[in-house]
Amino acid sequence: MSIILGIESSCDETSAAICADGDILSNLIANQLVHQNYGGVVPELASRAHQQNIIPVVREALSVAKVHKNEVSAVAFTRGPGLLGSLLVGTAFAKAFALAGGIPLIEVNHMQAHILAHFIDDPKPVFPFLCLTVSGGHTQIVLVKDYFDMEIVGETTDDAAGEAFDKTAKLLNLPYPGGPLIDRYAKQGDPMAFRFPEPQIPGLNFSFSGLKTSILYFIRDHQQKDPDFIAQHLADICASVQHRIVTILLNKLKKAAKQYNVRDVAIAGGVSANSGLRNALTAMADQEGWNVFIPKFEYCTDNAAMIAIAGYHKFLKQEFVGQDVAPLARMIL
Ligand code: KG4
Ligand code: ZN
Question: Which residues bind substrate (predicted)?
Answer without folding.
Answer: 133-137, 166, 179, 183, 274
